[in-house]
Automatic annotation (TrEMBL):
InterPro entries found in the cross-reference section: ADH-like_N, ER, GroES-like_sf, NAD(P)-bd_dom_sf, YIM1/Zinc_Alcohol_DH_Fams
Organism: Catenuloplanes atrovinosus
Taxonomic lineage from the root: Bacteria, Bacillati, Actinomycetota, Actinomycetes, Micromonosporales
One Pfam family it belongs to: ADH_N
SMART domains: PKS_ER
A GO MF term: oxidoreductase activity
Stored PANTHER family: ALCOHOL DEHYDROGENASE RELATED, RETICULON-4-INTERACTING PROTEIN 1, MITOCHONDRIAL
Protein name: NADPH:quinone reductase-like Zn-dependent oxidoreductase
Enoyl reductase (ER) domain location: 10-323
Length: 325
């Protein structure tokens, strides 16, 4: 089978290559999937470049990637089930995540990280959902009740942002989207209350009016976020700065968050997405109800996977970047 691999860390265009590999076999609790589409997220960039260096100590491979095939999100069709799999069968259309690489014609994934693909989505649209959608879902849950409350989302036009905006609006929030100049029309089409173009205005433009801030862009200083937040509001840190220098890159920002909370009534806390069938099924329900629709900025064929990751690494993708296989 064809697969996009990197056997060493480095710049995507230098280290990624198309290879011919044997098909994997599903182990207990896993299924073999013919992958039709996969998406790109900053986590993939981290596993291609090996940056920030601390991530190499987290089991991904110190000198080189432990598993060579890249990609986490996927949508495709089950072709074989491993022992003890009772919930899925060959022919089922699924979406979800895997840890053996989805930029390949075939991959294996645990059934507990998969759900049936929503019928109204194409494979490309479904592949756009899992990592960013589940992170956005975790953030909306951490936000608490949102009916009538004001929520600011930085990086609103990016991978996590486009899901978070829609989930927040569906939960009753009045959303302020912080994004670059090319994304105001998209944000308005999704139903946001206000748009802050960060090239013209700062996030504290309207004063301390936001009950919740979801920070996915990870680049505005904490004092500025505080000035946009009500006295008892909360800041949820989803990420950002993964490409910042240093051993931990931008992750220092998440590590500092609990310390800030100690000294203030305003709360800062990191949020992380989790792979789960239940989370995907919650997203499927919103998709079926029409309150959540994936936004795909660009699509690339598998052979151009390095270009897809370079596009994301440029820092200004619109919604999700998808690879078709
Ligand atoms: N916690 C978790 O479980 C989890 C899961 C996945 C990802 N992450 C992390 O979360 C971060 C965001 O991920 P993502 O997939 O949403 O990334 P993404 O798709 O690259 O989106 C980032 C967005 O930020 C916008 N942006 C850039 N500079 C900005 C600024 N100064 N102010 C506001 N927006 C700005 C970019 O476009 P414009 O400039 O054009 O608006 C882009 O749309 C990454 O660091 C990633 O590693 C965390």
């Amino acid at each position: 089978m064809k697969a996009l691999i990197n056997r060493r860390y480095g710049d995507p265009s230098a280290v990624l290559e198309l290879a011919d590999l044997p098909r994997p076999s599903p182990a207990r609790g896993e299924v073999l999937i013919r992958v039709h589409a996969a998406a790109v997220d900053p986590g993939v960039w981290i596993l291609v470049t090996g940056r920030p260096p601390a991530m190499r100590l987290m089991g991904f491979g110190v000198r080189r990637p432990k598993h060579p095939v890249r990609g986490r999100d996927l949508a495709g069709v089950v072709v074989e089930t491993g022992p003890d799999v009772t919930t899925l069968a060959p022919g089922d259309e699924v979406y979800g995540t895997c840890d053996r690489g989805s930029y390949a014609e075939y991959t294996v994934a645990p059934v507990t990280w998969l759900a049936r693909k929503p019928a109204r989505l194409s494979f490309a649209e479904a592949a756009a959902v899992p990592v960013s959608g589940q992170t956005a879902l975790a953030a909306i849950r951490a936000a608490g009740p949102l009916t009538g409350r004001r929520m600011m989302i930085t990086g609103a036009g990016g991978g996590i942002g486009v899901f978070a905006v829609q989930l927040a609006i569906a939960a009753g929030a009045r959303v302020t989207a912080v994004c670059g100049p090319g994304k105001a029309a998209l944000m308005e089409s999704l139903g946001v209350d206000r748009v802050i173009d960060y090239t013209r205005d700062e996030v504290d433009r309207d004063g301390p009016v936001h009950d919740v801030i979801l920070d996915t862009a990870g680049c505005r200083p904490f004092p500025l976020l505080r000035r946009a937040l009500t006295r008892t509001g909360r800041v949820l840190l989803a990420g950002g700065g993964h490409d910042a220098p240093g051993l931990l890159g931008g992750f220092t920002r998440q590590l500092r968050a609990p310390l800030l909370t100690t000294f203030a009534r305003q709360r800062f806390r990191p949020v992380a997405g989790r792979e789960s069938t239940a989370g995907l099924e919650d997203l499927s329900r919103a998709i079926d109800a029409g309150t959540l629709t994936p936004v795909i900025g660009r699509t690339f064929p598998l052979e151009s996977g390095a270009d897809a990751i370079t596009h994301l690494a440029g820092g200004h993708p619109t919604g999700k970047t998808v690879i078709t296989i």
